[in-house]
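User: My instructor asked us to take a sequence, write out its structure as tokens, and then describe one feature of it. I'm not sure where to start. Here is the sequence I was given:
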Amino acid sequence: MLIIGIAGGTGSGKTTVVRKIVESLPEGSVAVIPQDSYYNDQSHLPLEVRKKTNFDHPDAFEWPLLAHQIEELKTGHAIEQPTYSYLVCTRLKETVHVEPHDVIIVEGIMALYDKSLRDQMDLKIFVDAEPDERLLRVITRDMAERGHPLDMLVDKYRNVLKPMHDQFIEPTKQYADIIVPNGGDNSRAINMLQMYVRSALKEQNIIKQLRQKSNA
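Assistant: Let's start with the prediction itself. The structure tokens for your sequence are:
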């Protein structure tokens, strides 16, 4: 099994990079674990309090659960991945059943933040993009998909996204094995990533087959 962590700021192009890696691998060989699914359960708090959650701060995540479930997958056990709703700002009762796959991708803004999670990864990727470009992507996406007004998005960027990115997300770049500039638009870097992942997966399968033969 190959564990890949893909981090990067909001609007950096992580989703595109993940999609292109998945598309380059055999169907059914990859499970994508979104870090967003592991926001803390806040069902014990009033809704007005939950709505004030800073989703870009490390304290918003239940790190031990995420690290434990990746470890479970790595040891061949299925997990019940939590689900989270931004509408009610808490975890839902429904879970997603995830079986172990040849490749597990952990994707999120701070996928490289937690050491216990990071230490389980075979490959750590940071998707990078210029701040102006990330801002434009966030504005375009949130206005189109969520109907957010421009002034609210600019205010959120100045007061939440940018300071949280500078304090908690950007520093995790130092842990990356590979940095992908310009996000999903960097076709050469993505092609290299695809080749590396396919090669690593092939090598692991060869080792697995040799072990099976030696134990037969």
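For the description part of your assignment, you could build on this observation: The mean pLDDT is 90. Try explaining in your own words what that tells you about the chain.
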